[in-house]
Specification:
The protein has 82 residues and is mainly α. The protein has three helices and no strands.
């Protein structure tokens, strides 16, 4: 039924096609789309106290193991800060 209408009236088919293309073009131009939304990257903060220890001892016994564990289990693209 619809096919016969468009076969018998090609001008109507052309006008409807042009209206659809123009409507789609206007919608694409007006539609707001953000490619990269505003997000806050995940942050992990670890703190600890080692009473009576100097900086080198804390680095060797606390900081280095935590950093290597964080690097081992980190997601792709997330790096441990130094």
């Amino acid at each position: 039924m619809i096919a016969n209408t468009f076969i018998k009236r090609p001008v109507t088919a052309i006008v409807i096609s042009i209206v659809l293309v123009l409507t789609g073009s206007i919608c694409i131009a007006v539609l707001p789309v953000d490619q990269y939304p505003d997000i806050t990257p995940p942050i992990v903060q670890v703190s600890g106290q080692f009473t009576g220890a100097d900086a080198q001892t804390v680095e060797q016994t606390v900081a280095t193991p935590h950093r290597t564990a964080g690097e081992r289990y980190a997601w792709h693209g997330i790096h441990a800060e130094q």
